[in-house]
TrEMBL record:
Its EC number is 2.1.1.63. Pfam families: DNA_binding_1, Methyltransf_1N. InterPro entries: MethylDNA_cys_MeTrfase_AS, MethylDNA_cys_MeTrfase_DNA-bd, MethylDNA_cys_MeTrfase_DNAb, MethylG_MeTrfase_N, MGMT_N_sf, WH-like_DNA-bd_sf. It comes from Comamonas jiangduensis. Residues 96-176 form the Methylated-DNA-[protein]-cysteine S-methyltransferase DNA binding domain. One of its GO terms (biological process) is methylation. SUPFAM superfamilies: Methylated DNA-protein cysteine methyltransferase domain, Methylated DNA-protein cysteine methyltransferase, C-terminal domain. This is Methylated-DNA--[protein]-cysteine S-methyltransferase. It catalyses: a 6-O-methyl-2'-deoxyguanosine in DNA + L-cysteinyl-[protein] = S-methyl-L-cysteinyl-[protein] + a 2'-deoxyguanosine in DNA; a 4-O-methyl-thymidine in DNA + L-cysteinyl-[protein] = a thymidine in DNA + S-methyl-L-cysteinyl-[protein].
Length: 178
């Protein structure tokens, strides 16, 4: 009779960098498969803390073989959000519902906005407006999953995880607002 030995799970390693950008500072974190987080803020320490809180099981490490190129692309998108770029994403976590919302967000073209109600309808759950707003707030991929393109039904700003001023700046850069 043989016994099975289990091999320990490979720990999740997130390589990250924090760089200056037009919106303050941006933390870009990635696995070898793609970008896992894009976080905006004003304080490097707070951004790193946010990353660790989002992914407590992850081992954080600076740098990485493709991180420079990917973070350059994120900086280019932040400077010119209407430009279309294809970058590999490795979305970690999130519920099935959140992932559905994040996928729908990626379908909103630059320069356009949707309401939380329209987004709820687009994913086939018209009664889930508050849950859609919650999924937008939980989005770990600022700009790459463009939750800044979602407004309230009355045209108001709604919320934005990284601050209304950043949301306004991104929408102005995209030409969605004057």
């Amino acid at each position: 009779m043989s016994t099975r030995t289990s091999t320990p799970a490979t720990p999740l390693v997130l390589h990250y960098t924090v760089r200056e950008c037009p919106l303050g500072q941006v933390l870009v974190a990635a696995t070898p498969k793609g970008i896992a987080a894009v976080l905006l803020g004003d304080d490097k320490t707070q951004l790193i803390s946010d990353l660790q809180q989002r992914y407590p099981q992850a081992q954080l490490d600076t740098g990485g073989p493709v991180l420079q190129r990917w973070s350059d692309t994120v900086l280019e998108i932040l400077a010119h959000p209407s430009l279309q770029h294809v970058v590999p994403l490795d979305v970690l976590g999130g519920t099935d519902f959140q992932r559905k919302v994040w996928k729908a967000l990626r379908g909103i073209p630059a320069g356009q906005t949707r309401s939380y109600t329209e987004l709820a309808q687009a994913i086939g759950q018209p009664q889930a407006v508050r849950a859609v707003a919650g999924a937008c707030a939980a989005n770990p991929l600022a700009v790459l999953v463009p939750c800044h393109r979602v407004l309230r039904s009355d045209g108001g700003w709604g919320g934005y995880r990284w601050g209304i001023a950043r949301k306004q700046q991104l929408l102005q850069q995209e030409g969605a607002i004057a």
